[in-house]
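If your schedule permits, I should be very grateful for your opinion on a structural question. The matter concerns a single protein, recorded as an amino acid sequence and a row of backbone structure tokens. Could you please explain, in whatever detail you think fit, how the structure tokens follow from the sequence? I set the record out below, with my sincere thanks for your time.

——
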Amino acid sequence: MRRVRPQVELTQESLFNFFSATRLPLLSGLTSALRWVGLVLSVSGFCYGCFALAWWWPIGFWRAELPGASALPAFVMVPGCTLTWWLARRNRIKPAAIALFISIYLISVLVTWGRGVFCTTWYLQPVLALVATCCLGGIAGLTLTLFGVVALLSVPLVSPPQGESHLFVWQHSVSLASVTLASALAGLVAHHLLHSALLLLEMQRSLQQEAQRALRHRERLLRHAMRVETVGDLAGMVTHQLRNAFQVMLGHASLGALGDDADRVRRLALLTDELSNARPLLDQLMSLAHPDDGAPSLRDLDAELRIFHERAARIMPSNITLTLDSCGRELSVQINPRGLEHALWNLVINARHAMPEGGSITLRTAITGEEASLAITDTGGGIAEEIRDLIFDPYFTTKPVGQGTGLGLAAVDRFVRSSNGRIKLNSGVGLGSEFVLTFPLAIPLATAAAKSST
């Protein structure tokens, strides 16, 4: 099967995502740097132009001998730098960079144009060409480079040399222009490499996001599959209890039809009570089948176990005794209540399957140091030593084909680990099984005792 390569384009948004992901000051603060550079240069250019006009009046507008060639280069810098600041504020990186480079090129040419071809400022042209083509690409970078080369080659015509031979001046001008063009070509190569690297990184980022979305979707499907087996077993027990309740209600309805008005009222009240007792069975079945796991919150583990005991006792078969051994203290843990209920149902249903002839299940809470523990103990046949390390593996089951998926204990183990807890198995063949779930206390005992005393 041919694999289709995703089409990835570099956009303004993808560049910003890449710059933010690198967390490098130069990249992540690029728009802020352009904004501040444009603002500082425009303000300083305007202030220097006004100063040059006032200090060197009337020759201060433009004179090659004056510092910075006087006011004209400074005033020329102001519009471009102001435009850079305005574009950078709107997160338009490339237009802002073009405006900044145009301003820099104009300033460099105006400052050095009247000082001859041997002015040291001309040696900035190769550097500017390299940076411009590397940052802006071919069209904009080469256009600015050609502007600087033309200005450099026109200097011997505008400012004839003083004392040097014309041939030497032209050689110097042409060689410096050649170096500038070579720097521009090197900048184009660097720009291409940088563009390819950014394109590859953007493609990897897109593939990683798609993989994460697929992984989250598969995880939701797996969590739902983990609930299916538990809901199926629980539905069987609920159906058995509802069948008994319906038989009782049918008996009251039949006898009420034969009795007098007082007997009908009494039996209607009994029907209402029976319906009220049956409704929680359906409610807990629907809540357990809900695909949403909820969110962790601060819960009292002992109180949650008491609530679960009341629900489970209603649907346990008559040959199984469900006992609660509460420590009687508040056990505050950071836990997901729906995940805890799902885990408890898995363990209790597994214990029921381990006792087909009947037995007892004990739910117990305890405190060990700064941890709260919850234990589910049964009197079944126990678990053989050779499979104890495999029971928490997904899809491992000892039940016959078609009677189990092997996801129940895997769901319990996943829930305990996601709650920063741990699970331990104590079992032996013929000695029953005990699953101990341990969670860190969210409120230490010393703190809880201090609050209760105050």
